[in-house]
Design a protein that fits this description.
Elements lengths: L31 H28 L22 E6 L12 E2 L3 E2 L3 H15 L6 E7 L6 H4 L9 E8 L1
Parallel strand pairs: 1-5
Antiparallel strand pairs: 1-2, 1-3, 4-5
The structure holds zinc ion.
Length: 165
């Protein structure tokens, strides 16, 4: 990385008053191909967001905190088969938060998972990590207290919420 002054544009390298707003001849967005690609990406993001908004309006209007990843789809299967999903309380912001484990779910969709995640947020009391990024399997031996009473069937996979803020 070459030495660069704070008010030097990274695209055209001129010294300018305002790096963010100057009329840059090398602004990548002046390239019509790149501009079209950015627009298409934005339109796709809006379309995916609307899919979730429409789904939520009908199926889960009471969701207060939980936010989906727009790259998932509320009607797609999130996990094939039987599973429980858990999250741990008291490890983030509010020490009164309790552990949360779902009932056994069968082929839950991402919409189903988001509804469970909303319940989890209320139980865990971590309203900061409200973005559901995915699910990941854990070894039940590592989490005996949380899942022991929820899972006696070895055919039930134990998953943990993967969250972001
Ligand atoms: Zn520039």
């Amino acid at each position: 990385m070459p030495f660069r002054l704070l008010n030097q544009c990274t695209d055209c390298e001129s010294i300018v008053d305002n790096v963010k707003n100057h009329d840059c001849p090398k602004d990548p967005m002046k390239d019509p191909v790149k501009r079209a690609a950015a627009k298409a990406w934005e339109a796709e993001f809006d379309r995916k967001t609307k899919v979730w908004d429409d789904w939520q309006e009908v199926n889960a209007p009471d969701i207060e905190y939980a936010r989906p990843s727009v790259n998932s789809n509320p009607t797609y299967i999130a996990f094939q088969g039987k599973c429980v999903i858990f999250g741990l309380g008291g490890e983030f912001w509010d020490e009164d938060g309790e552990d949360f484990v779902t009932n056994v779910l069968n082929n839950p969709t991402w919409g189903d998972v988001l509804i469970e995640f909303e319940k989890a947020i209320h139980t865990i009391k971590d309203t900061h990590h409200r973005f559901l990024e995915g699910l990941y399997p854990v070894d039940i031996k590592d989490w005996p207290n949380v899942v022991r009473k929820a899972v006696s069937d070895p055919n039930v996979t134990v998953l943990r919420f993967s969250t972001g803020s």
